[in-house]
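Example record

One chain of 141 residues, shown exactly as stored in the release files.
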Amino acid sequence: MSGYARFMELKEVLENENHIVLHPEVEFEMKGDDTSVGAYFERNGGIDAFPPEHEVWKKKGDAIAKHFQKIDACDAILVTNYEKKGIENYIGGNTFLEIGYAFGAGKKIFILNSIPSELSYKEEILGMQPIVLHGDILKLQ
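Predicted structure tokens for this chain:
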């Protein structure tokens, strides 16, 4: 979600190419240009400040379930991976979960930028045989 604004720009490009685009919704109250859920937690004391029974975890689970429903309704997913946490083309845990879900559902997987070697789960991503677009959104078919 940290690249949400850039994703919305890509959404317009894809729709101009006659693609139907579904996207995750921002489920948390964000401020300014920061649409990162991680930043939301940091502004509020960090993840550990929210005990397991806190309502934020239900919201998080509901958001994951809603996104899985959107993946079910699609032919493919597009991972928009940008720099985050000092890693170029970062793919986070939640996105990795979504890639795995899409793979299990037999969906095509497109990744906008290269897959960083710093990820401990790069091997698993490569095993799901995504199509890497190398920054060229118009290669998406």
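Notes: The chain has one domain: 4-139.
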